Amino acid sequence: MSVPRADYDPRRIFLISCPSLPFFKHRRAIGVYAAGALFALAHAMFFDACALSAHAKPPPDAPYDTVPVHVTFVDWIPGIFTTLGLLIINLIDKERLLSEGSYGGEPTIIWRARLFLFIGFALMAGGLAGSVSLLVLKYIIQNYEPRFQYYGYANVAQNVALMLAAVILWLAQHASSEYEYNLQL
Fold first, then answer.
1. Which residues, at least 6 apart from 111, have a Cβ–Cβ distance to it below 8 Å?
2. What's the Rg (C-alpha) of the chain?
3. Is there a contact between 112 and 59 (Cβ–Cβ < 8 Å)?
4. What are phi and psi of 73, to 5 degrees?
5. Nearest Cα to 49, choosing from 160, 165, 155?
6. What is the pTM of this model?
7. Residue 18 — pLDDT band, cuts 50, 70, 90?
């Protein structure tokens, strides 16, 4: 018979916990600002592609040709889904996901929180899959010039940056603030 480790908590899902960064005094604020910067960068990349698409001109050697492709509403849908997933995931109270939290562990509250967490992750995964499929089907298979393929690459980069922002914000919300005290009896 083996003796369990002293630092093992049976309520945890993973045996390896996320590393704590003790040398940063304001790690929560740094994480929130980094997530906000990634969120802004993601939308700036996509808005840049939208502006380039709106002002695209035919080549000078064929001024009467039309521009082969533009950013349309279909290109906006993956970013909208990923942004909604980011909001849903980070609006969930993390204590409600645990089976024995400060809310008494009511099964209906836990079940609802986990359902909304699943919906948020499904929206984010669907947004990323949609942007990759849009890149392949609309821009790469049609064999457009690289300046037109940039619209699809910007869409994929937007969704990846939004997913990274969600992860950073999730981890930053778990970081303890300098104003919190952890008392254990």
1. none
2. 22
3. no
4. -65, -30
5. 155
6. 0.78
7. low
Residue 71 CB: number of other CB atoms within 10 A?
22
Instruction: Identify the three-state secondary structure at position 17.
Output: coil
For a pLDDT cut of 90, what percent of the chain falls above it?
49
Question: Using the 8-state DSSP alphabet, how is residue 162 labeled?
Answer: H
Least confident of 16-20, 149-153, 164-168: 16-20
Domain ranges of the chain: 27-57+69-174
What token pair was written down for 4? 């369990």
- How many angstroms separate the CA atoms of 113 and 96, rounded? 6
The residue type found at 4 is P
Closest CA to 35 of 85, 97, 86, 79: 86
Tell me which residue has tokens 């298979």.
141
Copy the structure tokens of residue 64: 């009467």
Determine the Cα–Cα distance for residues 77 and 1; give it in Å rounded to an integer: 56
pLDDT tens for 99-124 read 655 555 567 778 888 899 999 999 99
